[in-house]
Amino acid sequence: MERIEGYSSQPNSSFTPGSPIYGYGVAKVLDSGHPDLKAGDLVWGTTYWEEYSRIPAPEGLIKIHHTDVPLSYYTGILGMPGLTAYVGFYEICSPKKGEHVFISAAAGAVGQLVGQFAKLMGCYVVGSAGSKEKVDLLKNKLGFDEAFNYKEEADLNASFKRYFPEGIDIYFENVGGKMLDAVLLNMRAHGRIAACGMISQYNLDHAEGVTNLMHLVYKRIRLHGFSVSDHYHLHPKFMQFMLPYIRQGKIVYVEDIVEGLESGPRALVGLFKGLNFGKQVVDISA
Amino acid sequence: MERIEGYSSQPNSSFTPGSPIYGYGVAKVLDSGHPDLKAGDLVWGTTYWEEYSRIPAPEGLIKIHHTDVPLSYYTGILGMPGLTAYVGFYEICSPKKGEHVFISAAAGAVGQLVGQFAKLMGCYVVGSAGSKEKVDLLKNKLGFDEAFNYKEEADLNASFKRYFPEGIDIYFENVGGKMLDAVLLNMRAHGRIAACGMISQYNLDHAEGVTNLMHLVYKRIRLHGFSVSDHYHLHPKFMQFMLPYIRQGKIVYVEDIVEGLESGPRALVGLFKGLNFGKQVVDISA
For the Oxidoreductase N-terminal domain, which residue ranges apply (chains A, B) (predicted)? Predict the structure, then answer.
């Protein structure tokens, strides 16, 4: 049983108002009855949207050992979204040098990392996002080869024909619906799709029908849904991989930090409108 | 350059009227300029819908060495559909003993074999088909645990809840559309779907939209389109596996053989109406 304080990031994608208000957060232990945790330890993992919490089962929390990077990174690039990007790209997409990679919601916490991983591997990388500012971020700061604002594309199929004249090898799927349908038309043989989320569909009464699934057969595509929750055993390996890139500035990470617990609900709703700019974090200890 | 005569099975799924009339057939070589083939050899592979053919590139044909089984089997259980079932089940589905397996179009050339492979592995196996006769075949002759006529099910989701109260681990997909949508609701975590075909969608002007793809993420499902054309190197291993089961009568195979090339078009159209009973074969040498 711990009392902790600290950051709380957005809850995971299955959050619905009225359910217990979990989130991925960073916290400091104030008091602990658990042998592995003592007062002053920093931890990250599933916490609550509150300034002080009692955590009855702290075994799931992960202790923070490296504090030369911003603590908020443990809600993002070094935490759940970072591991999601790492697992999704390296384990699920089976990437190869030079392949053509498309990432939707590319300016988000996961997408921005997947794009940079793909660039490190020598892939051609295009991302979609929902504003000019995000598109500029992808192209000018995160090193994507191309990026486009999906809201300004009247015909997504034509967009893909333009950005991927030879087709897409890997699609990192965060969006679903019409985007997936257009991607399917433009996949290459033996392509892979890592389905990380389908944010365009979560709040619809009736999900959009995807009509081009026959291309999975024609092109022998693997479409693989995954959840980081199955892969936490890879976190130590991931840290060894990730920390040097951060320290050397070879991987850039963009956060959108709002102050105070009271800013949390608006930040959450903003995610579904695309108002966040990078990983949305709520700093509740400022 | 060979002149060959013999069986011709249905063409593959990408056949459209007006295109070159290829099919998977069994044939006897009448004359050959190729060093690996001589008059009298029996072969199977891509042939044409005609009684005598010139095959300009016979390298793709596979020589028949075992004639103690019906020659028509090389259009089916020992040929392309058999290898499709073998690859699709053992390579794509990653099956484990005791898993719960659903097969659509289960009385077809591929489905009936997948079901028997799954039973050999100790799985619980349910198939769908489009007539009472086919359902009886699946349950009484092919050893499926359960089978149902999808045309008599008003609510496929309810059907799956009935046949798979604990959910589906493996779906061998031959149908697409509404069937896939209902299956997705009933898959278990870490399930696998081998997409072999989507016959319900081929002749629609607009494919049915599949709306439950978010379950791929929720349940971390792998949906993998495949084509036997990528796996012909496994055919020798497949023959070693398959022939003993056939000779010992441990795997049963049902064919629907019509006589004469003139019966071909009607048999082809019948496939899309589900009129065939087992693997559709056209015997053009009778």
Answer: 12-62
